[in-house]
TrEMBL record:
It comes from Ceratitis capitata. Component of the ubiquinol-cytochrome c oxidoreductase, a multisubunit transmembrane complex that is part of the mitochondrial electron transport chain which drives oxidative phosphorylation. The complex plays an important role in the uptake of multiple carbon sources present in different host niches. The keyword Iron does not apply. This is Cytochrome b-c1 complex subunit 8. It is found in: Mitochondrion inner membrane. GO terms for cellular component: mitochondrial inner membrane; respiratory chain complex III.
Length: 89
C-alpha cells in the first residue's frame, strides 16, 4: 500500500486540517483529579445507595433465602435415619 505524499509523517489525529474550531487543553499536571471527592463525592455515594437499595437488595435477599432453604433441605436429606440402625449390634 502506497502512502500519498500529503500524508507522509502525519499521525492519525492530524490527518485533516480543521478550520474554525477552537480547542482548549489543560495539562494533566494542572488538573485536580480529586477536587471535591470528599465534600461532594461521599454524600453522592450515600444518595445513590439510598435511591437504589430497594431495587437491588430484594433479589439478593430472595436468592439468599432460597439458597439457605435448599442447603438446609440437602443437609436434612443427607443425614442417616437412626431408626434404620436400632437393631444392629
Amino acid at each position: 500500500m502506497r502512502v500519498t505524499s500529503s500524508l507522509l509523517g502525519a499521525h492519525f489525529g492530524n490527518l485533516a486540517k480543521v478550520h474554525g474550531i477552537v480547542t482548549y487543553k489543560l495539562s494533566p499536571f494542572e488538573q485536580r483529579a480529586f477536587a471535591g471527592a470528599i465534600s461532594k463525592g461521599l454524600p453522592n455515594i450515600f444518595n445513590r445507595i439510598r435511591s437504589n437499595i430497594f431495587i437491588v437488595a430484594p433479589p439478593f435477599i430472595v436468592g439468599y433465602l432460597i439458597y439457605d432453604l435448599i442447603e438446609r433441605e440437602h443437609h436434612h436429606l443427607s443425614r442417616k435415619n437412626p431408626k434404620d440402625f436400632e437393631n444392629e449390634e
